[in-house]
């Protein structure tokens, strides 16, 4: 994942004050790689990484340099390393071809210069009709050669330009891909983290978080199978995208949980959540091989609007508590945070 360090001083300071003491207490060198790991840990951005570090802390394991480096590669820069390696190979190939063409053009230019110098010497001396004709033939020949070389070089430049444009397109496409959940095609946790920090740093306007958890999803998986469970998740993702405003972020938070980041008031977010809740109950999915129908899909919602002086983890915690209350009160309901 890419680490989105907040520009907001107060927000950044909060995470630094949590991460650094943990590193010092556990004898972890405060270098950039290790700080990145513990920054992610204190912001609860990667549950798998948090689980691993929690277990290591509980078992009082030693955080060796090799262990930290491997965790960094796996959980921090894995996507970027793979992307950069692929693009590096392609770009290296383009540059090598271009360098070959430049050298060829340079050699051709040097030959042309020598030919011109030779011709100039001939013209400056005593010329016979025969030597004049030889000079003209040499000029024609070398002019044709340099024309061919420069023509090839121009073609190579155009080809290189096209390849570089394609590499830029691939880079943009891959960057977009790393922000999308492969199954549901909504945003992933990485996209959520980035947008959350962006909105927190914007002091103007509303920001409301909606946590969504599908009810009895484990039972659905056990009854109909995981393939059908995946179809349910895909159907939910489409429903959320169709209903939410264009400037909203819809993301899969993990497992059967989704999250919305809305630039609207809590009241407006509540209405959006209610519309989604009602739409999910109307969602009907059919199992192809048996014709079996899955319907009456329900979800519970926790809605929380950012309040002044609040930090992202605190907002998430309030929304999560509201979601838990919705579950306790019978599920299939929207609960607003206190």
Q: What layout of secondary structure does this protein have?
A:
Layout lengths: L8 H17 L6 H11 L4 H12 L6 H11 L2 H47 L4 H49 L11 H13 L6 E7 L2 H8 L1 H18 L5 E6 L2 E6 L3 H16 L3 E2 L6 E2 L4 E7 L6 H17 L5 E3 L2
Parallel strand pairs: 6-7
Antiparallel strand pairs: 1-3, 1-6, 2-3, 4-5
Helix pairs in contact: 1-2, 2-3, 2-4, 5-6, 8-9, 9-10
Structural class: alpha+beta
The percent range for strand residues is 5-15%
Spatial strand arrangement across the major sheet: 2-3-1-6-7
Shape: elongated
What do we call the CATH topology of the largest domain?
Alpha-Beta Plaits
Calculate the mean pLDDT score and round it: 80
Assign a percent range to the helix content.
Answer: 55-70%
Total count of strands: 7
CATH class membership of the largest domain: Alpha Beta
How many discrete structural domains?
3
Written as H for each helix and E for each strand, in order along the chain, the element string is HHHHHHHEHHEEHEEEHE
Which homologous superfamily in CATH is the superfamily of the largest domain? Reverse transcriptase/Diguanylate cyclase domain
What is the number of helical segments per DSSP (H or I, 4+ residues)? Answer: 11
Largest sheet: 5 strands, mixed
Low-confidence stretches: none
Rg of Cα set: 31 Å
Q: Give the end-to-end Cα distance, rounded to a whole number of Å.
A: 32 Å
């Amino acid at each position: 994942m890419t680490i989105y360090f907040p520009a907001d001083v107060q927000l950044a300071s909060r995470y630094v004050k949590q991460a650094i003491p943990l590193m010092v207490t556990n004898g972890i060198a405060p270098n950039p790689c290790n700080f990145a790991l513990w920054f992610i840990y204190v912001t609860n951005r990667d549950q798998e990484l948090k689980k691993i570090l929690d277990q290591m802390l509980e078992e009082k394991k030693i955080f060796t340099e090799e262990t930290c480096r491997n965790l960094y590669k796996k959980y921090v820069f894995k996507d970027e390393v793979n992307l950069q390696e692929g693009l590096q190979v392609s770009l290296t190939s383009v540059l090598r071809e271009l360098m070959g063409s430049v050298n060829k053009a340079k050699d051709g230019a040097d030959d042309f210069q020598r030919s011109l110098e030779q011709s100039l010497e001939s013209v400056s001396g005593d010329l016979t009709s025969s030597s004049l004709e030889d000079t003209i033939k040499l000029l024609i020949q070398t002019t044709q050669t340099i024309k061919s070389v420069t023509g090839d070089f121009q073609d190579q430049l155009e080809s290189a330009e096209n390849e570089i444009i394609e590499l830029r397109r691939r880079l943009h496409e891959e960057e977009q891909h790393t922000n999308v959940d492969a199954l549901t095609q909504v945003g992933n946790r990485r996209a959520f983290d980035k947008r959350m920090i962006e909105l927190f740093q914007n002091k103007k306007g509303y920001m409301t978080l909606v946590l969504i958890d599908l009810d009895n999803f484990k039972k659905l998986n056990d009854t109909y199978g995981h393939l059908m469970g995946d179809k349910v998740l895909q159907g939910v993702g489409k429903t959320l995208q169709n209903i939410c405003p264009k400037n909203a972020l819809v993301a899969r938070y993990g497992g059967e949980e989704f999250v919305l980041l809305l630039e609207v008031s809590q009241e407006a977010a509540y209405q959006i959540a209610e519309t989604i809740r009602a739409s999910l109950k109307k969602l009907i999915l059919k199992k192809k091989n048996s014709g079996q129908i899955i319907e009456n899909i329900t979800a519970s919602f926790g809605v929380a609007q950012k309040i002044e002086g609040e930090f992202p983890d605190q907002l998430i915690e309030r929304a999560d508590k509201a979601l838990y209350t919705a579950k306790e009160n019978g599920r299939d309901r929207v609960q607003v945070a206190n």
